[in-house]
TrEMBL record:
Lineage: Bacteria, Pseudomonadati, Pseudomonadota, Gammaproteobacteria, Oceanospirillales
Pathway(s) it belongs to: Carbohydrate metabolism; D-ribose degradation; D-ribose 5-phosphate from beta-D-ribopyranose: step 2/2
GO BP of this protein: D-ribose catabolic process
Quaternary state and interactors: Homodimer.
Annotated cofactor note: Requires a divalent cation, most likely magnesium in vivo, as an electrophilic catalyst to aid phosphoryl group transfer. It is the chelate of the metal and the nucleotide that is the actual substrate.
Subcellular location field: Cytoplasm
Protein's name in the database: Ribokinase
Length: 294
C-alpha cells in the first residue's frame, strides 16, 4: 500500500494566447473544471498504475463529488477529512505552446492534523510506502513520523522549499525533484550543475530527477541510471511529473527494479503530455503497456 499524504484541488483551466500581464484583463477561449492538486494527481496515477493507494488529506465537507471522483479512479478515501475550510483550488492558464502558469489556494489542504497523521501511521504494514508533496501542512512532521513508523518514505518537494527539504532529507528513502526543484535545492543555475552537485552534497540519499523531454535520472550511493523520454508531441505538460511519480512508485512498491520502473513511468508521463488536463490525462497501466509495445 502507498499512503499518499497530499493536496486535493479543483483545477480551473483557461486556454489563453499568453499569460495574463500586470494590469491586463484577458479573455479565455475555453474553460474546464477538473480534479487536480499534486497529491490527488499522484494518487490517481498510483491507482491507474495498479497500486493500492490510500489518500490522506482534506476537502470542504460540501464537496463530496470529489470523494466520488477519487474513488472512481480506485483511490481509497477513508483518510480524507471533511472540514469547514474551502477545498484547495488552482487557477491554471494554458497556452498553445503547452506551457502553464498556476495560482494555488491551499484551503483545506492546510488543515491536516497531527492526530489524523498518527491514526494513519498506526495502520502501516511492513513494506508500505508513505509519499508526500509540499502542498499540505505538517510535511516535516509527517515525514519524520512515517520514517519512525517504519515506512519507506518518498518526498516530492513541490513547490520547493529548500530549508524544509534539507531538514527532512534524513527521513527519506527517495527524493523526487524536477529540473527547477533540483536547481533550487543545489543552488545552481543549470541542470547539469545540479546533477553534478546533488550527489556530492547528499551522498546518502537516493534522488530521482525528472528532466522534462530529456527523460529522467536516478542516483544513489550505489547507482546512476538515466532513462530517455519517449518522443511525443506535447499538448499540455500539467501532471507529467505527478504521472511519473505515481507510476514509478507503484512499480517500486510492487518490487520492480529501478530502471524498469523508470521506463514505465516515462512512458506513462509521455502519454500524459499528449492529453489536456491533470487527473483525466493520466493513462492506465494497460495504455502504458500498449504504448511501450508499439
Ligand atoms: P514536472 O511536470 O514536475 O515539471 P517533468 O517536466 O520533468 O516534471 O516531466 C516528468 C516526466 O514526464 C519526464 O521525466 C518525462 O519522462 C515526461 N515528459 C515531460 N515532458 C515530456 C515531453 N515533452 N515529451 C515526452 N515526455 C515528457
Amino acid at each position: 500500500t502507498v499512503f499518499n499524504v497530499g493536496s486535493i484541488n479543483v483545477d480551473h483551466l483557461y486556454q489563453v494566447d499568453h499569460f495574463v500581464r500586470p494590469g491586463e484583463t484577458m479573455g479565455s477561449s475555453s474553460y474546464q473544471q477538473l480534479l487536480g492538486g499534486k497529491g490527488a494527481n499522484q494518487s490517481v496515477a498510483l491507482a491507474k498504475a495498479g497500486a493500492k493507494v490510500k489518500h490522506v488529506g482534506a476537502i470542504c465537507h460540501s464537496d463530496t463529488h470529489i470523494i466520488e471522483q477519487l474513488q472512481s479512479y480506485g483511490v481509497n478515501t477513508e483518510w480524507v477529512a471533511k472540514v469547514e475550510e474551502t477545498t484547495g483550488h488552482a487557477i491554471i492558464q494554458l497556452t498553445g505552446e503547452a506551457e502553464n502558469a498556476i495560482i494555488l489556494h491551499a484551503g483545506a489542504n492546510h488543515t491536516l492534523t497531527s492526530r489524523q497523521i498518527k491514526s494513519v501511521l498506526d495502520n502501516l504494514q511492513q513494506g508500505d510506502w508513505v509519499l508526500l508533496q509540499n502542498e499540505t501542512n505538517l510535511v516535516a512532521e509527517a515525514l519524520q513520523a512515517a520514517q519512525a513508523a517504519g515506512a519507506k518514505v518518498a518526498f516530492n518537494p513541490a513547490p520547493m522549499d529548500v530549508e524544509l527539504t534539507r531538514k527532512v532529507l534524513p527521513y527519506l528513502d527517495l527524493l523526487i525533484v524536477n529540473e527547477v526543484e533540483a536547481m533550487d535545492l543545489a543552488q545552481v543555475d543549470t541542470i547539469e550543475a545540479a546533477a553534478d552537485k546533488l550527489p556530492k552534497d547528499y551522498p546518502d540519499i537516493a534522488v530521482m530527477m525528472t528532466l522534462g523531454k530529456e527523460g529522467v535520472r536516478y542516483f544513489s550511493a550505489q547507482e546512476d541510471i538515466q532513462v530517455p523520454a519517449f518522443v511525443v508531441s506535447a499538448k499540455d505538460t500539467t501532471a507529467a511529473g505527478d504521472t511519473f511519480i505515481g507510476f514509478c512508485l507503484a512499480e517500486l512498491s510492487q518490487g520492480t527494479p529501478m530502471q524498469q520502473a523508470m521506463t514505465k513511468a516515462c512512458a506513462a508521463s509521455a502519454i500524459c503530455v499528449t492529453r489536456m488536463g491533470a487527473a483525466p490525462s493520466i493513462p492506465t497501466m494497460n495504455e502504458v503497456n500498449d504504448f511501450i509495445a508499439q
